[in-house]
Amino acid sequence: MFGAPSRYAAPDARYRDIDVASRVQGATPHGLVLIMFEELLKGLGVLQAAEAARDLARRNATQARVISLLHGLESSLDYTKGGEIADNLGRIYREARRLLGPTPGIDRQTAITQVRDMLATVSSAWEAIGPGVNGNLT
């Protein structure tokens, strides 16, 4: 009952995709990064649930999406203008990808929690420094 796939899952995913797409269209560059962080943190929650449920298909798909978002965040860094901050963020994103991969000696749930904590801190700081999705202060 609780573990069975819902017949509403596919439409729900489509609505979520439409919502994200419409928010992206009106977003400032700063807002785009906020959207990426939102999706990343949601994805980490789904990844943790899939890991706990031993749902390998969902885990693999979600992990691929999370890693793609991490690559996107890292590729958006301007190392010339960002200096030390960009270097530090790049290290955080690379460490997050490392922890999400096959890491001997680290429990997957613990690794996902560490990644979530790291990225939630960065996300909160990013949210606090500037305009939101539509140029409004958040």
Q: Treating each run of at least 4 consecutive H or I residues as one helix, how many helices?
A: 5
Question: What is the C-level CATH assignment?
Answer: Mainly Alpha
N- to C-terminal separation?
A: 40 Å
Beta-strand level of the residues, as a percent range? Answer: under 5%
Description:
There is one protein chain. The chain is mostly helical. The chain has one domain: Four Helix Bundle (Hemerythrin (Met), subunit A) (Up-down Bundle). The radius of gyration is 16 Å and the shape is globular. The chain starts with 8 loop residues before the first helix and ends in a 9-residue tail after the last helix.
Features:
138 residues; mainly alpha; Four Helix Bundle (Hemerythrin (Met), subunit A); 5 helices; 77% helix; disordered N terminus
Quick description:
With 138 residues, the protein is mainly alpha-helical. The protein is built from 5 helices and no strands.
Itemize the secondary structure elements and their pairings.
Blueprint: H1 9-25, H2 29-53, H3 56-75, H4 79-100, H5 108-129
Helix pairs in contact: 2-3, 2-5, 3-4, 4-5
